[in-house]
Structure to design on (267 residues):
């Protein structure tokens, strides 16, 4: 009897095993959901008749007041015929459309549509005229064996840094417009911005930057975003000029303050 009592499991062991099983199951399910959401829709989804019909309904209810019935344009918005699915996915997916307010350019905000609704509207607009399509997952994979992060940095500095700054922190343009920060932006939206040229941004077609080039640029931005700021504050990510100006201004202010303090003491 004593040996049996020693081998008997504690009642809480079963509860602990059950909780461990639930945690593992939940973790695996979450991982699988993230993997599926990264490639939830294929190119075929953007040519599905059902998705096109649903997208037309959403478009007429939310977009036609500015862009017109049939996306032919109007006084408050341009024609969307021929802009392609990528343009709609970028503008709607980043919250720039529908516009929050009138101004020099649309500002990003939380997306008010689900991924499925965004895909359906993109499918509808894509059906009206050919244009840039949603990028394939192969060109969004920053861990791909052929990715060259250093080359992506060179391409970014040559083609993008004059507006977005070398650090990708963004910068001011003319007449109240600006180049936004590219940090924290999804890979798909970065790619779509390059192929559609939103706002004042030029279009980088495959003849300018190949899909592999675009993937390298995205990989560089993602790698840059993991580096942090060894000096402490980012200071707007404007580089050594801003940092030097901050030190010079702060040091000069301290020097003048010390001189004023010494003068008042001597008097």
């Amino acid at each position: 009897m004593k040996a049996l009592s020693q081998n008997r499991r504690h009642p809480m062991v079963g509860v602990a095993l059950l909780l461990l099983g639930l945690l593992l199951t939940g973790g695996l399910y979450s991982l699988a959901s993230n993997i599926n959401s990264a490639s939830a829709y294929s190119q075929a989804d953007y040519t599905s008749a059902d998705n096109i019909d649903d997208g037309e309904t959403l478009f007429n209810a939310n977009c036609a007041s500015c862009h017109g019935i049939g996306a032919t344009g109007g006084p408050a918005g341009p024609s969307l015929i021929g802009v392609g699915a990528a343009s709609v996915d970028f503008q709607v997916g980043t919250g720039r459309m529908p516009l929050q307010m009138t101004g020099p350019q649309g500002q990003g905000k939380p997306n008010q549509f689900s991924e499925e609704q965004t895909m359906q509207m993109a499918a509808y607009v894509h059906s009206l005229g050919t244009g840039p399509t949603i990028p394939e997952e192969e060109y969004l994979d920053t861990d791909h064996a052929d990715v060259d992060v250093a080359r992506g940095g060179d391409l970014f500095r040559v083609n993008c840094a004059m507006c977005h700054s070398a650090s990708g922190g963004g910068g001011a343009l003319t007449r109240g417009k600006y180049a936004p920060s590219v940090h924290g932006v999804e890979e798909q939206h970065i790619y779509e911005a390059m192929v559609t040229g939103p706002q004042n941004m030029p279009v980088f077609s495959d003849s300018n930057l190949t899909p592999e080039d675009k993937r390298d640029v995205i990989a560089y931005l993602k790698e840059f975003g993991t580096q942090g700021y060894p000096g402490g504050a980012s200071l707007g990510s404007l580089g050594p000029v801003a940092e030097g100006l901050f030190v010079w201004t702060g040091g000069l202010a301290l020097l003048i303050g010390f001189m004023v303090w010494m003068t008042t003491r001597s008097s």
Remarks:
- Residues 131 and 267 are 76 Å apart (CA to CA).
- The chain has a mean pLDDT of 85.
- The chain has eleven helices and two strands.
- The longest strand covers residues 171-172.
